[in-house]
Amino acid sequence: xxxxxxxxxxxxxxxxxxxxxxxxxxxxxxxxxxxxxxxxxxxxxxxxxxxxxxxxxxxxxxxxxxxxxxxxxxxxxxxxxxxxxxxxxxxxxxxxxxxxxxxxxxxxxxxxxxxxxxxxxxxxxxxxxxxxxxxxxxxxxxxxxxxxxxxxxxxxxxxxxxxxxxxxxxxxxxxxxxxxxxxxxxxxxxxxxxxxxxxxxxxxxxxxxxxxxxxxxxxxxxxxxxxxxxxxxxxxxxxxxxxxxxxxxxxxxxxxxxxxxxxxxxxxxxxxxxxxxxxxxxxxxxxxxxxxxxxxxxxxxxxxxxxxxxxxxxxxxxxxxxxxxxxxxxxxxxxxxxxxxxxxxxxxxxxxxxxxxxxxxxxxxxxxxxxxxxxxxxxxxxxxxx
Length: 386
Hints:
Helices cover about 40% and strands about 15% of the residues. It contains 13 helices and 15 strands. A 7-stranded mixed sheet has the order 2-10-9-8-7-3-4, with helices on both faces. A 4-stranded antiparallel sheet has the order 11-12-15-14, with helices on one face. Strand 3 (about 115-120), helix 5 (about 125-130) and strand 4 (about 135-140) form a beta-alpha-beta unit.
């Protein structure tokens, strides 16, 4: 019998579509279902990984909180973007990927029955981790328009109340590409202070913006500096998906609790990967590397938007994916996903469970297919819907 904590936790859909596409074993399939990318990681990270294979110190549990070099690089990286200084010894801990960091942070900050504020739609994996930690998701709807998603700062702040433990925000958000800015942080600062709530910031994609602007980091706002817990990851910006390394940065008292949860949960991150991530974060050309990758992803995004201009797409402001509203086509997201898979060899994930409005949408990941293959999308959609 399913235990209580799992009864309201569905899958994420990506696994089912990905498994089906793998089983088809057909190179003609467009793989738009999983948040992968074919762009290579930074060369410095690959070099460091190869060296780690022969380093006995990399084949170890220790240090449990992450190697000093990694924590120093991560603390410095977050500090640069937030305009603050973080102590690597007391204000940073490494984790086994960003989502491990999110769960550890929720377990350290949320009492069972307390609310966690999220935008809708949002990644099901974030929603599910809130529930796994015993929290209650409270959704604030984002508004779709052809030129992108937006969420009202005042409405976001109004969702924070006496029962709120934390606000969990991602920018750019997955799967929408919603970008938050100073207006949102200003509104949330007063609300979080009033109700003694944390701001948990999922920074996995913060530099993957299509407007050319730098990230807007909540800890840069004076009113949020002591309330912001930043969870970062090497998976997206650095394309180090299989390395499974992330970091959590924030005030020392709460970081001590998050470190304790980590010791009790996954224990430690991948030893062979830590120096690679440290090197990629600290490399002199790190910003240029992320900018070059972002330029490729933006071109691919524009190709999808161009080929599917006749369909109800919502433009993302960053990230690796965009959403298509299936309702004007007379379909649910799941029905559209099935038609594309069966008739047109397109693997794309429906958004069931990705927030209250998720069932209306289909996600198209543009990070893992070149422009030449994405150019076939118009014909494939016509075949699927004809």
